[in-house]
Write a structure and sequence with these properties.
This protein is an alpha+beta fold. It has helices at about 35-45, 50-55, 90-95, 105-115, 125-140; strands spanning about 10-15, 55-60, 65, 120-125.
């Protein structure tokens, strides 16, 4: 018998554009950058790769570079609560909240719901689509 996930009927999510997912929350304090993003974002900003890495990123050995999150929020979250790099935002940002680590019931109903008012709102995303998005995000970053 196949074991069904706790979300086998799907998950509801509607982005409220509150910007909370762009702010530091407990363990949610990093945004990984793939090679594609390390090309697209500096180009969008009119910066060299070196300048972008120096100004906005940190490198942890053995991991992808990440956006520097030493402030309370992402450096690209502007005063109006909008993303200054939205057209080229990282895959991790595009696929929130459907990440593998968020699909643990206690995580989804706990820290994810606490930070995101769009959880359990809006259209129902089928379980297989949720898993496809999470898998695609993992694969994007080589996971």
């Amino acid at each position: 018998m196949e074991h069904k996930p706790w979300y086998d009927k799907g998950l509801r999510f509607k982005c409220t554009q509150c910007g909370n997912c762009c702010k530091n929350h407990g363990e949610y304090t990093y945004v990984s950058l793939s090679e594609v993003e390390l090309q697209a974002i500096p180009k969008f900003l009119g910066l060299s790769r070196r300048e972008f890495l120096s100004r906005y990123c940190e490198k942890v050995p053995g991991h992808h570079p990440t956006l520097r999150m030493d402030q309370p929020a992402c450096p690209f979250l502007n005063a109006e609560g909008r993303c200054d790099i939205y057209p080229v935002r990282p895959k991790q940002c595009q696929t929130w909240p459907f990440w593998t680590e968020n699909l643990v019931e206690e995580t989804w109903k706990g820290p994810v719901k606490e930070c995101c008012p769009g959880i359990d709102e809006g259209p129902l995303t089928p379980a297989d689509e949720v898993e496809r998005i999470a898998r695609e995000t993992d694969e994007w970053y080589g996971g």
